[in-house]
Amino acid sequence: MFVQPLEPVADSLPLSALVAALPLVTVLVLLGAVRMKAHLAGALGLAVAALVAWLVYGMPLGQTLSSAAQGALFGLFPIMWIVVNALWVYRMTVRTQHFDILRRSFGRLSDDPRIQALVIAFCFGALLEALAGFGAPVAISAVMLVALGFDPVRAAVVALVANTAPVAFGAMGTPVVTLAQVTGLPLDSVASVVGRQTPLLALVVPLVLIWLVDGRRGLRETWLPALVCGVAFAAAQFLAANYFSAQLADIAAALAGAAALMLVPSARRPADEAVRASVLKGVRSDDLDHDDPRPEIYRAYAPYALIVAVFSLAQIPPVKELLAKATQSFDWPFLDVADADGQPVGANIFTLPLVATGGTLVLVAGLLTAVVLGVRAKDALREWGATVHELRFAILTVVSVLALAYVMNLSGQAATIGYTVAAAGAGLAFLSPVLGWFGVAVTGSDTSANALFGALQVTAARESGLSAELLAAANSSGGVLGKMISPQNLTIACAAVGLAGKEGDLLRKVLPWSLGLLLVMCLIVVGQSTAVLGWMLP
């Protein structure tokens, strides 16, 4: 049995922490300074982590490789299994042109550009985040806003800022699923705390979007619809994350936000021409005037309804028990690890949820979607293959980052860093979201940031006497605010609206909002770590 050492370098915790941080430093420097492709940076970081585990921590080479293999498998299944199937559903709606029908449907909900920004960037962007993630919501929302006549820069900024509140539950809950796995905390516990943090952002972000679109006048005239939208979004996200299904949190929030917004009478009133003239300075797409048959509009909404229906059915106790029977648990080969206290770690046993996993449920919904949209079996299979090809580099990135995370966690590197960070004491609650924010700003992914820093946060929390669930959740909740300034998202936004090379201009516009909202999240977490807001936690 390999027992994790905490101070392998000169019996010094600080020196050991410096060496243990080398894999993380490698990845962050390669991504941030060298601008290396993420999948290559992840692979090199994994190599450094394996060398540190073997040569410094004394982890047998076979166990080091075995821990990397377990992390890689988890990256493939269930993480990328969820993402591939979710994006496949979206690609089928594009292939059958039902996505265009959905886009036109949203455009007809209101002719007020301020309301359109809420519907498309905030609500529909959250729906896209739920299904695809990985930059798709920013690209698609920005393009849709430009088609409505928004200036490209304004469209890109609005899309970037809107892509915050839903990120922690994006791609069918992938970030929180990853966070639960790498920390060993129950998914329900982690999702519950995240669901009591990010909904607070949802109360603010719609108002920020209105300000970005139309300044003081926009807030004065449309604050009520924005507030109602934010409250409905926040309430649905909170309820789904805490009492139903973390995988459906964003879908429920997006639909609730859009529905509540349309119930506000002022949101449906024709916009003042002065407002439209001052906001819509781009070229409006002609296809927005095309009338779609009502049955086709229903079919355009069908994929999202099917996902909700399949996940809802899977939550019924008898069905849930039946699906769980297919779950396989077994001793992971060539792995026998104990923590610093001599207790076997949970990763020695690997659990494989073959059916009771979000990816398989999305696959079922995708098969039903193909039938409803009239996609032939051959074409559906071809789209699935094209989805895998499109995501090939994202798959490599996630696999390498999770393999790195598992090596660091199982060798004891993450524990060493965590014990060192715990010296921050009470200040750790304030710094915890900042670490997640930094991780997402560099990697562009809340999933990757959770894999890299999740275990570290938990170790630091336990050593400092803080709630492990709170700091783990704070990593993800703080991370969502780094999404808008990540080079990956900035590049995607610029490419989508024809502003290639203008990433620096966008960064200057969104950075103040990223930092301001991060400060709000830090104060929320600090409050939740004390009696001030501690009542909010489960």
UniProtKB/TrEMBL annotation:
Keywords: Cell membrane, Membrane, Transmembrane, Transmembrane helix, Transport. It is found in: Cell membrane. One of its GO terms (molecular function) is lactate transmembrane transporter activity. It is a multi-pass membrane protein. The keyword Membrane applies. It comes from the Bacteria. GO terms for cellular component: plasma membrane. This is L-lactate permease. It comes from Streptomyces albidoflavus.
